[in-house]
Design a protein that fits this description.
CATH architecture of the largest domain: Alpha-Beta Complex
CATH topology of the largest domain: Inosine-uridine Nucleoside N-ribohydrolase, Chain A
Radius of gyration: 22 Å
CATH superfamily of the largest domain: Ribonucleoside hydrolase-like
Number of helices: 14
Oligomer: single chain
Number of strands: 15
Largest sheet: 6 strands, parallel
Length: 443
């Protein structure tokens, strides 16, 4: 009966072009970080992430050793500066958006990872508070997948997987593994290759195109570092700014990002639809005498052909969002800051992707006129044909710099998909953007 019901729903969708949502609720996230190391970019990324905790469920922050051992205690020195600053601004943040966790909630999820770097730190007797925490988080009675954002090596996750494999049945192992997703920045040890080899069913992104999207140093000084207690903890750039941030920008619930569809694109980049063999880590992994080739072939999702341009496409929105959130940290008055508009298509006020079955040669009409702004700001509308994730690659012509869109579906688009992105932009300072994604399947 259940199968018949699903078939009926599909037939109705085909006949009447029912709008079917793809869910985009808050994502569960664990970060692994070598914070306290020579490059302060992890500290930069942590501060950025803290301002976004109303849009993601952070369930773990694991500090661990990278390829270069961190002086013992340096991780906590950084954390003991950043977290008290967050505690001081939490009340202000909570005025502007609900859902920011308390300092007590954050302290409960901060754990130490592996005592040794790379696969040297994985195996019998090498469990850590971090690896045990990963197991506990994944085991929770929560159907949502858990994304691991790797700002460092992957051996704490590797240890968790190693232990579960050793202590559970094959069916229990698969139940555990099915809930794990990985966004690996650059590849920073050999544990990632081991994970991809041993557990090929894991959605594993390795992004080596993470630089070039942040603005210049002067922008950070004027928009981030000036802003009170949290801004004071945002360090100057040593090498690249916020190299790790795409890993969490990818999962933020903003109406554009759809983490379960890596090839759809969003704030954290866009990725191939199919895995590729042997995407290597950074060159210093080899210089550190770590050999990924012994795990060949291993398969991961790599950056799509547009590379970092997939992030740059949205960079102005990302930067404005960060700047606005830093203003939230320094004012307890709602009316003294800008807030995101609500992008609405038809009567749908969610951040879900709208999936619509349409006919070649028909005209699709979309209306975002019910969109609104909590500050009463004027709104402008931009409809984008997002060609890169679309399987239809021909030209699209539509009218609509306004809230209403009319799109003639090309007659040669049958069997293809067309991705549209609505940007709703307010007139506040800094200007903020909200999104809705519409995916048209042409029949």
């Amino acid at each position: 009966m259940k199968t018949n019901k699903n078939v009926l729903l599909c037939l109705l969708a085909l006949c009447f072009c029912i709008v079917l949502p793809t869910h985009a609720s808050k994502t569960r996230l664990i970060v692994t970080s070598d914070i306290g190391g020579a490059d302060p970019d992890d500290q930069q990324s942590l501060i950025h992430l803290l301002t976004l905790l109303d849009r993601v469920d952070l369930e773990g922050f694991i500090y661990q050793y990278a390829w270069v051992p961190i002086n013992k205690g340096d991780e906590l020195k950084v954390m003991n500066k950043v977290l008290p600053a967050y505690e001081k601004v939490w009340a202000n943040l909570s005025v502007h958006s609900k859902g920011f966790p308390t300092i007590e909630a954050l302290q409960r999820i901060i754990k130490h990872g592996q005592a040794e770097a790379a696969m040297h730190g994985v195996g019998e007797g090498k469990d850590s508070p971090g690896s045990e925490h990963i197991i506990q988080v994944v085991d929770k009675d929560d159907p949502r997948p858990v994304w691991i954002a790797a700002w460092s090596g992957m051996n704490t996750l590797a240890q968790a997987l190693w232990k579960v494999k050793q202590t559970r049945t094959a069916a229990e192992l698969q139940q555990f593994v099915r809930k794990i997703r990985v966004y690996d920045i650059l590849g920073q040890d050999d544990a990632g290759a081991w994970i991809a080899k041993e557990f090929p069913e894991i959605t594993y992104i390795r992004n080596k195109e993470v630089y070039g999207w942040p603005p210049n140093d002067a922008w950070y000084k004027d928009n981030i570092q000036y802003a009170g207690k949290l801004g004071e903890q945002y360090p100057n750039r040593r090498w690249a700014t916020e190299g790790d941030s795409p890993s969490f920008l990818y999962v933020i619930d903003n109406g554009l990002n759809m983490p379960e569809h890596p090839d759809w694109g969003g704030w954290g980049g866009r990725f191939d639809a199919e895995k590729r063999a042997d995407i290597r880590s950074m060159d210093w992994v080899v210089r550190s005498n770590l050999d990924e080739t012994k795990y060949d072939p291993y398969y991961m999702l790599g950056a799509s052909k547009e590379g970092c341009d997939a992030i740059r496409k949205w960079a102005e929105d990302i930067n404005n969002d960060f700047a606005a959130r830093m203003i939230w940290t320094i004012t307890s008055r709602y009316e003294e800051a800008n807030h995101h508009p609500q992008a609405v298509v038809g009567k749908d006020k969610t951040t879900d992707a709208l999936i619509k079955n349409v006919k070649a040669g028909s005209v699709v009409k979309l209306d975002a006129g019910r969109s609104s702004d909590p500050d009463g700001d004027a709104l402008s509308f931009e409809w984008i044909y997002y060609q890169e994730p679309s399987t239809y690659k021909g030209a699209i012509t539509f009218s609509g710099a306004t809230s209403k869109l009319q799109l003639p579906i090309p007659s040669d688009a049958q069997g293809k998909s067309i991705h549209l992105v609505l940007r709703v932009i307010d007139s506040g300072k800094p200007s903020l953007t909200s999104y809705r994604r519409v995916v048209l399947h042409v029949k």
